[in-house]
Amino acid sequence: MKQILVISGKGGTGKTTLSGALADLASREKQIVLADADVDAANLELLLEPEKQETFSFNAGKTAVIDQDICTFCGRCEEVCRFEAVEQKEDGSYIIIESMCEGCLSCVHQCPVEAIDVVVRKSGEWHRSLTLYGTLFHALLYPGEENSGKLVTQIKTAAKKYADDNNADILLIDGPPGIGCPVTAACQGVDAAIIVSEPTVSGRHDLKRVKQVTDFFHIPSFLVLNKSDLNLAIRDELIDLSKTTDMPLLGEIPYEERIIYAQAQGKPVTQTLDNTISKYFSDIWEKIKNHI
Amino acid sequence: MIITVASGKGGTGKTTIATNLARTIAQARKAEIESTTWLIDCDVEAPNAALFIHPTFKKEKKVERLLPVIHHDQCAGHGVCVDVCESNALAIAGGKTLFFKELCHACGSCVLNCPEGAIRETSEMIGLLQQGSSDSLRFAQGILEIGFSSPTPIIRDLKKWIIPQETQPNSTYILDASPGTACPVVESFRGADFALLVTEPTPFGLHDLKLVAELIFKEFQIPSGIVINKSGRGDEIIEQFAVEKDIPILMRVPLSRDIAEAYAIGTLLVDAFPQYKAKFNGLHKKISEILQKGLPKQ
Amino acid sequence: MQIAIPLSDNKGLESSISTVFARCPFYMLIDPETKVFTIEENPAQNASGGAGVKASQWMIDKEVAAVICGNLGPKAHDVLSAAKMPTYKFQSGSIEETLTAYNENKLTSFFEPNVDAHAGIQ
Predict the structure, then answer these.
(1) What domains sit in chain C, N to C, each tagged with a CATH number?
(2) Which of A70, A175, C97, C102 registers the highest number of CB atoms within 10 A of its CB?
């Protein structure tokens, strides 16, 4: 079973478009399991029409709550909190702002009267769903919550177990944007990373950043250039970069408004586009098969 | 006034709108005495605004956190530090206390709890802040060091560095937030007067617009407005949502290859297509009006 | 004397050995000679981070005599080697087969025998 992660560094380069297309193409020949690791803004489900089978709570971590009946207003909690999560109100009492609380529990240990309780936080939920292309694991992190890296890990662990138990050939993971914790979590244990970039100054800048992350984890990386004819000079630069940094080019997709409109149909674009455009995606899939 | 520009979804045009709005306001107010316009790039994992603004940087500031250092000669192996560490960054094995820096969240709990006082602290750099200017626009950004997980402390420090506790009436701060709706975005909204939500007329854009609108509603209750980028076919789904939630649509930028090509090479819309100056001035005016007296009628 | 073995399910001696060390759902603590065992929930499986560290510390605190596992992440490796915990690589097969291989000294160690354990950041 191979794990393939699709990431981009910069948001909006076409990561989910590609993931949806690969889910469609790969599932025609192989048994695949899917995971949407972009838990802050999970969009893959908008292309795959999932039917939820099971839902799980995501309990991110702990948070501290001051018991106002026991609190003596000494302010020790505010002194020790490194995350500015403790606020003193006008009446002199102290409260912990849940959205700032990191759950380190330092205040709990330091409170001289043991007035602070530890509470588990429900920060989101995740689902195992059926789709036409394979089972999909996807999540929703409630707005304003943190710990998305942990939720990514939970989904991936569940998806991997399901893929192993069901002898799937491929676990395809639609990754999060950026280079932070969720991306790091998504990278763990994958066999290959497909980086989707675009020939723009922002795309180039973020491609370099995200390649540093995959290099750090020694993950073989591959490049897909989306909107590739938007700027030929930058395109050529990125193709050179792919050669000099051991990041084989899987394919290029031109700037095509038809692709944007096709997405709005709520299906992988390879289902609705005509052959002249969907062949760009099939070519990429063929190359992936050769490498893996 | 503090305006935070966010979108939920990455790639909808947050940075495009934030940079062009900031440049336009700065130019319009050039002649005003004592007026400053700042663009603050809060997307510290992947800061891109500088690629369009080309600022000259004048000042830098390190963002540091305090990391524990174990003084083994004083360590008696009680293991209290291991017990209190919620990040599992400490272990006691073979009579030695081990510390795993990359797991540490710098909460200081181990330092406070060691009965021998054997843990002290040292400073480590987790990010860098930079400020400068481009013509009449002042600019600041933060960059998260690779390998560190949380961008939120960088954003917090960046805002503290630039925005005073009491903002002057002639100062405008435009914050370009990161994608998503998690902690870093919440931090970018804290203290803002207005939420400018950039979306695209697709199911993806709408899906994420809903998440960020919910966040504003749940946590901040500040006025907001929508900009539809890549507008054209499909606007109806955004318009419907806007009516439902009573959020005004303040501007539309059409889907256009020409605009995409200018963006590709880092040219501001208002420089490539001068007619956009009036549009962004109009956007600024509408935001000011909303802040002064409540939502205008569409 | 007890050996720790990560499990992916809880079916007594018929349980499947997990190739995942720090985030498996259960651990078996078993005497390789008498085959007397207990199965406990892995306290580290839901950790935000440092699951390998937590799981290793748990085993050390339980004073297990050895660990048999499939894979070992770098931090777990550091903690167990600092503790000089005999840690062996699980190949395949049932718990019975694995214990037989252990008893016959047929399992390979994760740690080089002559290299000093230099673990974590001190």
Answers:
(1) 3-103 (3.30.420.130)
(2) A175
